[in-house]
């Protein structure tokens, strides 16, 4: 407009101050950003906040607040946040904060246990806890209800990671030296483990085994399980046979299974997963015995070497065992018979018994009694026999001895009483005794005296012979010598007789020659006998004849 | 003291770069120093607002800095996350009370003191209170001076993480908390920096 006037104090124009508001406004981004970050962290933390669970243990050995971890499949899923005592001071209550993704693992039957180093014969586990301290292991369950309070296990479960496979229950009178974790073998391959052992109310044991997934197909209804602990040494006809599953099984015990005789399905197989645990492989592989039957035998002889458990053999086949050897008393003749009680498995008698039972007769005590009755009539007798001369052990043989005297058999006796004969070895003993007695009865002294007299007579005869016969014999011999001497001289070459004989012989030879010549001559010239000898030109005849032959 | 006149009353503005006293009236619209062309402001513009903003940011960061773990150590004896307060408690329990005290002062007491101190300064400035102007100025100087000492913790974590790398035997790694802690220190320093101490002495208009 107009020229600027010099400014005076009063009319100074107020400078238009631009409010550069963007700097301070921008600065507020910082606290807002901080707040956003903080809140987002809080939200994330809250989202990641997992469940808090409580587990009660009998002891809290080694559990530390804030340090002890909760691990599932060896991955940390939580941390112990508090350790306290239960209100009744009987258990230790461990609180643990789990991560959010572990919440789905918490089922009503989820198991927790404290992992401590464990060193067994079969396995060593938890060694890492020696340095890092204990941790709490976890195994999820299958039940659906969620749970926040648990009772911890005192021992880790044998299967902590739920591998696929099959759980089986084995029943046995006694479990032997099996322990939890003991191996289960199938043809020397370890395919599973023992996961539990229980003593049932009836006193028998139930062993729970787990067979891992690809191998559980080998478990069939016909499968037989047996205790594979220890070493099985057998001295058979084919030499020494040592059988064991593995060294670990020898030390720590173990189980083995294999297909049983396929045509027979054991009764226990009806319940899937339930099997009988046999004492050893032989027993497991034997065909099912059925119900044992009890028999009693009375032996009128000492049975030293017959133990409880000694086999009872029927025609060489083991069909049972001795369960008791008692001393009886027979008031009649005041004797002490040995009463042997044995259990027999009639099923082992094979085809005969099967035929009998197949004839509509149910397998019962009566059937057996009738069956045994017929056998006794045919000569079946029980006889103690020596199993080994070395050990002197006896067994009971049921054999047909038709020569034995008839025996009474009462089929209504319970237990059945089998007729007996004395043992073969014992009979041999008796025979030897009789032999010795006979030898003892011989009049040995008299024989000796007679023999002595005879010998004396012989001696006298001989001395007589020496005194009288011998000198004569010497004379005879010298005369004989002279005779032979003169004969020798007579026959000598230089003797006159010999010479004369030689000459005579030579002359007779000449004579004979002459005779032969004469004979020859006469042969050619028979006429000579009449005409006499012709002049000596006969020898040229052949030459003249020759020349005459040429001439013509 | 109050008898002394202030530059405002004299209509003068001091260039903070070259020290030239400029009459307020002679200033151009762009408020540049006629001698060195630096920007000349009567008072740092929006000083209180910016200080407050930084302060609030610092306070917000302070929460995760203390809640989140600052360091993660793992080794043969297991692994653990440690927070600042947890670390102090651990040292204290282990009997190293001197180290615990040092960390407590550097990491907890100092930032907290700074919040209170800056808050107090802001409050009084807002009210144009003439109360204890000298001591408030001293307080400001102290706040400015001790600001970077809070970096002690950050440096400890940085060194430990760098040095303690023994694979299996032991490793230490920084965790998110230390970043927040670092942010607290930086933000509070910025807060102190954006505060204009001349405001302490301004008289109510």
Can you walk through the features of this model?
Chain A has 552 residues and is α/β, with parallel strands linked by helices. Chain A folds into four domains: 45-151; 165-285, no CATH class; 293-426, no CATH class; 496-550. Helices cover 31% and strands 27% of the residues of chain A. Chain A is built from twelve helices and 25 strands. Chain A has a seven-stranded mixed sheet with strand order 5-8-2-3-4-1-9. Chain A has a seven-stranded mixed beta barrel with strand order 10-13-12-11-17-14-18. Chain A has a seven-stranded mixed sheet with strand order 23-24-20-21-22-19-25, with helices on one face. The longest helix of chain A has 47 residues, at 444-490. Chain A is elongated, with a radius of gyration of 60 Å. The model of chain A is unreliable at 543-552 (pLDDT under 50). Chain B is mainly α. Chain B has two domains: 1-42, no CATH class; 46-201, Butyryl-CoA Dehydrogenase, subunit A, domain 3 (Up-down Bundle), CATH 1.20.140. Chain B is 57% helix and 10% strand. Chain B contains eight helices and five strands, in the order αββαββααααβαα. Chain B has helices at residues 7-10, 47-67, 84-93, 97-127, 133-146, 151-163, 176-194, 198-201; strands spanning 12-14, 21-23, 71-75, 78-82, 170-174. Chains A and B meet through helix 1 and helix 2 of A and helix 2 and helix 7 of B.
Question: Secondary structure elements and their pairing?
Answer:
The complex is a heterodimer of chains A (552) and B (205).
Chain A: H1 22-27, H2 29-48, E1 49-57, E2 69-72, E3 75-85, E4 92-99, E5 111-115, E6 118-119, E7 124-125, H3 129-132, E8 135-139, E9 149-151, E10 165-172, E11 183-186, E12 189-199, E13 205-212, E14 223-227, E15 232-236, E16 239-243, H4 247-252, E17 255-259, E18 274-278, H5 281-285, E19 293-299, E20 311-314, E21 317-327, E22 338-344, H6 351-358, H7 365-377, E23 380-386, E24 394-400, E25 416-418, H8 424-441, H9 444-490, H10 496-524, H11 528-531, H12 541-550
Parallel strand pairs in A: 1-9, 2-8, 10-18, 11-17, 14-18, 19-25, 20-24
Antiparallel strand pairs in A: 1-4, 2-3, 3-4, 5-8, 6-7, 10-13, 11-12, 12-13, 14-17, 15-16, 19-22, 20-21, 21-22, 23-24
Chain B: H1 7-10, E1 12-14, E2 21-23, H2 47-67, E3 71-75, E4 78-82, H3 84-93, H4 97-127, H5 133-146, H6 151-163, E5 170-174, H7 176-194, H8 198-201
Antiparallel strand pairs in B: 1-2, 3-4, 3-5
Helix pairs in contact in B: 2-4, 2-7, 3-4, 4-5, 4-7, 6-7
